[in-house]
Amino acid sequence: MKFHFISSTASDAIKAKEEYIKVYKQTDPELADIIIPIGGDGILLKSLHDFNDLNKPFFGINYGSVGFLMNSKSNKNLKELIKNSKSTDLKPLKMIAINEGNNTHESIAYNEVSLMRQSHQASKFQIKINDIKRMNELICDGVLVSTSAGSTAYNLSAHGSILPLDSKLLALTPISAFRPRRWRGALLSEKSIIKISVLNFKDRNVSVTADNIEYRNIKEVTIQSSEDKNCKILFDNNHSIEDKILN
């Protein structure tokens, strides 16, 4: 079993990476069997963007803070941990955004796609689900669509629902909603096609961000699950996202 190790810039993560390489050797990502991100959820997200086209499974080791999607550090044999781990398939989001100049931008997001106002004024959005208008006007700072894996990230900070990794759901969550004031969002099938239009895009500019890739002055965004960018994340038997949420 061959590994490619990658770490965050945190000193503990860098030191752990060096120690793992001494024991298990470093293999180029193209030739490795498993990609091993070391750090927090952020380094796992970066690894997915950098290496998922190689069709390798990922086994994250937590040297960050909470690390919802990471495995706890362990003194056990890494090969045995991975051999006995369970695999979870994650579908990222495919985003197609159109800006004010009618230019099209496409991107993939493993956590979330978020639209956010660019000025001091609130934004106004219209939301369609599968070509059916579900909200005529949402006035808010922004709105996001999250995968199950990303539901513990920005979505959680925006008071969105936490989704089990195998739920096959997406979270549609407003950010500081003004009207409808009591709307807390919705849970949607991962097969849904979500179209968010900016009603006043010429007067109140809006940006869209797919994970860490941002486009500005957007007037329309279509979001759906990607069918060809699935990734496999491995979890050891001691991993429990529920325990991390409750703690």
TrEMBL record:
This is NAD kinase. Keywords: Kinase, NAD, NADP, Transferase. NCBIfam families: PRK04761.1 (NF003406). One of its GO terms (molecular function) is NAD+ kinase activity. It comes from marine metagenome. The keyword Transmembrane helix does not apply. It holds the Pfam family NAD_kinase. InterPro entries: ATP-NAD_kinase_N, ATP-NAD_kinase_PpnK-typ_C, NAD/diacylglycerol_kinase_sf, NADK. GO terms for biological process: NAD+ metabolic process; NADP+ biosynthetic process.
